[in-house]
Design goal:
This is Mini-circle protein. This protein has 185 residues and is mostly helical. Helices cover 53% and strands 2% of the residues. It has helices spanning 36-55, 60-64, 75-93, 107-110, 116-138, 154-180, and strands at 146-147, 152-153. Strands 1-2 form a two-stranded antiparallel ribbon. The longest helix is centred in the C-terminal third of the chain and has 27 residues, at 154-180.
């Protein structure tokens, strides 16, 4: 007998999927978005949803569970880290000094403890920081416009955000499987 969780999925149509396509909030019955900006925003939205799906239905203890020693990575840490990252990117494009860190140095992962108040705050922080960065970038629909003191193109900011979420969704896949065995797309 093993201490490893049994692999499982909620999908009934395709056994290798997280959920059936009809139940997947990322599936869109509409046509693919038109244009580069709409496509980039759609990819970002879907990776954000994927991360939330990977965290769905877990207790505070499960969300805070570390992957493998000595790593401090956890699903809760990923939520906190991505809130910090959204805030940091916004600091690159807004005038003035960057905003202070939400959790302090290393606090995004190190402070991800099994406490429901910490979990609730992480979800609220992530939603708030995503909305604020989205709003700041919405003022610049031209993907070639360069922003901030480093003159970063809007396109690069969107692509880097997609890359960050995509990479961490891969981590979330493995973390979730370690927590309860759930696997899928």
């Amino acid at each position: 007998m093993s201490d490893e969780p049994q692999r499982w999925t909620q999908a009934t149509v395709y056994s290798d999927m997280w959920v059936d396509p009809a139940d997947d909030p990322r599936e869109n019955a509409e046509a693919s978005p038109e244009g580069e900006l709409a496509t980039l925003r759609d990819y970002l939205k879907n990776y954000r949803l994927t991360l939330l799906m990977k965290c769905e239905g877990l207790s505070a203890e499960q969300l805070a569970r570390r992957s493998v020693p000595p790593s401090t990575m956890s699903l809760l840490g990923l939520l906190r880290h991505l809130a910090e990252v959204e805030r940091d990117w916004r600091g690159w494009i807004l005038p003035g000094d960057p905003l202070p860190k939400l959790y302090g140095p290393g606090g995004d992962f190190g402070g991800a403890v099994a406490d429901q108040a910490v979990v609730d705050a992480a979800y609220a922080d992530l939603a708030r920081e995503q909305a604020a960065t989205d709003a700041a970038l919405a003022e610049h629909p031209d993907l070639g416009v360069r922003l901030g003191k480093d003159a970063i193109p809007v396109r690069d900011l969107l692509v880097h955000r997609i890359e960050e979420y995509a990479r961490h969704c891969g981590h979330a896949d493995l973390l979730r499987e370690c927590v309860d065995g759930r696997v899928g797309q």
